[in-house]
């Protein structure tokens, strides 16, 4: 009787652990992988790599080790790029707000005088105004600035920061 209850407890515990795994979001797991700022900005570990092979190995290790921190840097740079470009911010808000308003307030055709305004005609008007506005706000320039700025920051940091002592044990563990 006791062993049956213990088996039931083990089964119940394994089911609960699976349920908590299913309910955790990818953002929670990524945020839990953030390294502390003291480790990320450890100035005592900054040095110039001796050669290209050492630089490549540092980049390989650090991009995996600090991946959550690097994603946070890209997100912060993206928010900065959008906030410092008022026309891009306005055009994105205009298009997003237009889509939301059309879906919420105009799902059915509306009779205005002799004209029937359909959802299709509202979307056409939104695109006729929104796409040129978006084109003038230069989203491609912003995107390529984001790629260039984040690449320089991430590759520079990954190249200059020496891997910690735990990287040596990871190499030994991989070979065993």
Question: Which keywords apply here?
Answer:
about 180 residues, mainly alpha, flat
Describe the global form: flat
Give me the Rg, rounded: 26 Å
Read across the widest sheet, the strand sequence of neighbours is: 1-2
Element-by-element helix/strand order: HHHHHHEEHHH
Beta-strand content estimate: under 5%
Report the major sheet.
2 strands, antiparallel
User: Which oligomerization state do the chains in this entry correspond to?
Assistant: single chain
Poorly predicted residue ranges: none
Count the DSSP helices.
Answer: 9
Number of separate strands: 2
**What is the terminal separation in angstroms?**
43 Å
If you average the pLDDT, what whole number results? 85
Structural class: mainly alpha
| Helical residue percent band | over 70%
Structure description:
With 176 residues, this protein is mainly alpha-helical. 77% of the residues lie in helices and 3% in strands. It is built from 9 helices and 2 strands; from the N terminus they run ααααααββααα. A two-stranded antiparallel ribbon has the order 1-2. Strand 1 and strand 2 form a beta hairpin. The model has no long low-confidence stretch (mean pLDDT 85).
């Amino acid at each position: 009787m006791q062993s049956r209850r213990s088996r039931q407890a083990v089964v119940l515990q394994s089911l609960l652990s699976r349920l908590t795994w299913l309910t955790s979001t990818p953002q929670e797991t990524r945020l839990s992988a953030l390294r502390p700022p003291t480790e990320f900005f450890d100035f005592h570990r900054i040095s110039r790599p001796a050669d290209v092979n050492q630089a490549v190995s540092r980049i390989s290790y650090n991009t995996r080790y600090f991946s959550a921190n690097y994603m946070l840097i890209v997100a912060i740079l993206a928010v900065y790029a959008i906030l410092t470009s008022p026309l891009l911010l306005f055009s994105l808000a205009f298009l997003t707000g237009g889509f939301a308003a059309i879906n919420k307030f105009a799902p059915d055709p509306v009779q205005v005088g002799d004209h029937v305004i359909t959802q299709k005609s509202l979307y056409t008007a939104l695109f006729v105004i929104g796409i040129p506005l978006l084109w003038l706000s230069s989203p491609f320039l912003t995107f390529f600035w984001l790629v260039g700025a984040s690449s320089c920051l991430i590759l520079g940091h990954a190249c200059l920061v020496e891997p910690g002592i735990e990287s040596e044990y990871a190499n030994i563990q991989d070979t065993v």
